[in-house]
Amino acid sequence: MFSLSDKTLGQDIISKIKKEKIKAKFMHVCGTHQDTIVKHGLDSLLKKCGISISQGPGCPVCVTTPLEIEKMLLLARNGAIVTSFGDMINVPGEYKSLGDMKAEGYDVRTVYGIEDAVKIAYENPSKDVVFMGVGFETTAPATAATIISNPPKNFSIFCCHRTMPYALKAILDIGELKLDGLIEPGHVSTIIGIKPYEFISKDYGIPQVIAGFEPIDVLMGCWMLVKQIKQGKTFVENEYKRVVHQEGNIKAQKILNEVFEPCDMKWRGFPVIAKSGLKIKKKFECFDASVKFEDTLKDLENKELHEPEGCLCGELLRGLVSPFDCPLFGQACKPETPVGPCMVSVEGSCNIEYRYSEK
Amino acid sequence: MCLAIPGKVVEIESNKYHAIVDYGEGTKRKANISLVDVKIGDYVLVHAGFAIEVLNKKEARETIALFREMLSFEEVK
Q1: Contact call for B45 and A347, based on CB within 8 A
Q2: Which domain holds residue B13?
Q3: Fewer C-beta neighbours within 10 Å, C or N terminus of chain A?
Q4: Which of A242, A249, A251 best probes binding to B when mutated, by most B CB atoms within 10 angstroms?
Q5: What residues does A278 pair with on adjacent strands?
Q6: What is the topology classification, in CATH, of domain A7-58+170-238?
Q7: What pLDDT digit, counting tens, does each position of B4-60 carry?
Q8: What is the pTM of this model?
Q9: Half-sphere exposure of A296 (CA within 13 A, CB side)
Q10: Chain A contact for B43 (CB, 8 A cutoff)
Q11: Top CATH class, A61-163+248-300
């Protein structure tokens, strides 16, 4: 009952957009949106209506930096059980991934969610169990809720959680792209609601629509952006009302605020973005792996790490290129032999494009 | 990563932190419900083992009709 199905509505929306004879560049920041767009060929349909749409830094695995991965490799090497989501485990740091370490016999485990990692900690009381917490506002509340549930003392979190609004600001401040509209991620918005995006429309004069993940949602989101452009309006509109409430999930926000504070954070492909990360508050630092293992990790702090040669993930995450612009795409870089994170993650543009392209 | 799946709450455990969620076609799994206020019969959206929101059934049922209305009445001036 929560999926949208209507034989002619999609076509009606397309006709409506076409009639406006517009030329616009939109960005979205969600791998699930990208999957819907590529799977259903919405990118080529929209192109015929004058709209180009690209994925920005909306894949948490992809924006995690090589330094964060190297830190996890070091903890695994030092005997900790390192746990994370499947995609994260396969992203290479400078040379190796956590998956490579697992193949070498180190204890690296894929988990479906943070509660599985806590279970591993209970089952292995003599070992340190570290959960590499990646994800945006959708995922961070689960980490926060786990921390306040008082997990065992041998459990800690290496916090790589990032938040979306200031990353959007960074894209606009860098100014490499002239964007006419932003499609905001439905499930991040489920948690944060509408307000955190408002400064973007106000300060940068750019229309925004929070959209769901069915093809009709994405098309409707584009139509709502077109409408704002034509009417000279710039505000945050909610297309995904069946899920996203104006104020977001207040209970989740309270738990987030109790456990985390904003911090400046580097994103792959970007410089450090002010206030774009989440740091575990001092009160809960016994669960913060970056504090618990500070002495071990400090040697890596100033190490210069190289990005894989020829890889365009950074430019891709800033929306400047498409996977087809990368000379490695489909050649040296494939899902079985990924060079960059955008080919590893099922939310990455390259992986999505490769999966749905005609081979 | 931010993928979330809707399902129906069919049982709430006595600790109140977990519920059994039915995703249809016989798939039932445990989910943590500490981020939402739910009762049996509610539909929730589950992400990485945690319910992140209760779905609005009325809004969901009316979505298509609402979109059609927007398309037919909201002509761009």
Answers
A1: no
A2: 5-76
A3: C
A4: A242
A5: A262
A6: Rossmann fold (3.40.50)
A7: 889 999 999 998 899 999 998 889 999 999 999 999 999 999 999 999 999 988 888
A8: 0.94
A9: 16
A10: yes
A11: alpha beta
